[in-house]
């Protein structure tokens, strides 16, 4: 069984490959949305951009989504949230920092 989001939608295949933090391991405020995916053109399983599902209700501004801090901390109480909920459990900050700096080279 594949993991699913709160709303029952499957976790995007590329979710583990998106860079969610800076090279200090700090969670980014906003994340870039994959423009190809919106047109059904992205088939990169290791795509580094957010793949938004239709009907997620996440607000996109300048082709970026704002990260939901509440969800990142563990729980978001909003029934409909316009911020992006990171669909996977993130590794500890030092691991994310190493990953981010590695991927950004
Ligand atoms: Zn993509
Ligand atoms: Zn939220």
What does this protein structure show overall?
The protein is of the alpha+beta class. It has one domain (about 1-85): Ribosomal Protein S8, Chain: A, domain 1, CATH 3.30.1370.210. Helices cover about 20% and strands about 10% of the residues. It contains 3 helices and 3 strands. A 3-stranded antiparallel β-sheet has the order 1-3-2, with no helix packed on it. The chain is globular and about 35 Å long. The relative contact order is 0.24. The mean pLDDT is about 90. It binds zinc ion (2 copies). One zinc ion binds next to helix 2.
Task: Estimate the strand proportion.
Answer: 5-15%
Q: What spatial form do the alpha-carbon principal axes imply?
A: globular
CATH architecture: 2-Layer Sandwich
Indicate the CATH class.
Alpha Beta
What fraction, in percent, of the residue positions are helical?
A: 10-25%
Number of strands: 3
Q: How many domains?
A: 1
* Physical arrangement of strands within the biggest beta sheet: 1-3-2
> Main sheet, how many strands, which sense, barrel?
3 strands, antiparallel
H and E string:
EHEEHH
Cα distance, first to last residue? 34 Å
Keywords: Metal-binding, Repeat, Zinc, Zinc-finger
Zinc finger (C3H1-type): 28-54, 62-88
InterPro entries: Znf-CCCH_Muscleblind-like, Znf_CCCH
Family: Belongs to the muscleblind family.
Q: What are the salient characteristics of this protein?
A:
105 residues; alpha+beta; Ribosomal Protein S8, Chain: A, domain 1; 3 helices; binds zinc ion; zinc ion binding; RNA binding; C3H1-type domain-containing protein; repeat; Znf-CCCH_Muscleblind-like
């Amino acid at each position: 069984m594949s993991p699913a989001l709160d709303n029952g939608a499957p976790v995007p295949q590329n979710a583990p490959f998106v860079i969610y933090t800076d090279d200090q391991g700090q969670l980014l405020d906003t994340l870039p949305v994959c423009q190809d995916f919106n047109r059904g053109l992205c088939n990169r399983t290791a795509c580094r951009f957010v793949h938004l599902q239709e009907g997620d209700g996440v607000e996109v501004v300048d082709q970026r989504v704002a990260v939901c801090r509440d969800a990142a901390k563990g729980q978001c109480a909003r029934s409909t949230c316009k911020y992006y909920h990171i669909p996977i459990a993130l590794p500890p900050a030092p691991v994310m920092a190493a990953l981010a700096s590695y991927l950004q080279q």
